[in-house]
Amino acid sequence: MLLVLGLTKILPMPCTLMCFLTLPVGNWVSSYVEKHHKENENIFLAKYYCLKLHVLLGAALSLGLVIAR
């Protein structure tokens, strides 16, 4: 979705680039969930990791909008 919004110029290019910087964190969260999907305690912690990813993505999007101005 991010790529489509960037290519159609709906989202400014700095926003797209800043949001792509959060991909390693997203991959880390995804691999963590895949690795611990049968352990209830570790999956419970994944909610906090997803929240951190959400905050990081929002900050990157906001920073990209400020830079694009």
Model description:
This is 2-carboxy-1,4-naphthoquinone phytyltransferase. InterPro entries: UBIAD1. Keywords: Membrane, Transferase, Transmembrane, Transmembrane helix. With 69 residues, the chain is mainly alpha-helical. The protein has one domain (2-68). It is built from four helices and no strands. It has helices at 2-7, 13-20, 23-35, 40-68. Helix 3 packs antiparallel against helix 4 (40-68). The longest helix is centred in the C-terminal third of the chain and has 29 residues, at 40-68. It is elongated, with a radius of gyration of 14 Å. The two termini are 22 Å apart. The model has no long low-confidence stretch (mean pLDDT 91).
Topology overview:
Blueprint: H1 2-7, H2 13-20, H3 23-35, H4 40-68
Helix pairs in contact: 2-4, 3-4
Protein name: 2-carboxy-1,4-naphthoquinone phytyltransferase
GO molecular function: transferase activity
InterPro entries: UBIAD1 (IPR026046)
Averaging pLDDT over every residue, what do you get? 91
Query: What distance lies between the first and last C-alpha atoms, to the nearest angstrom?
Result: 22 Å
Number of strands: 0
What's the helix-strand series?
HHHH
DSSP helical segment count: 4
Q: Show unreliable segments.
A: none
Q: Determine the structural class based on helices, strands and strand pairing.
A: mainly alpha
InterPro entries: UBIAD1
Keywords: Membrane, Transferase, Transmembrane, Transmembrane helix
GO molecular function, one term: transferase activity
Transmembrane segments: 6-29, 49-68
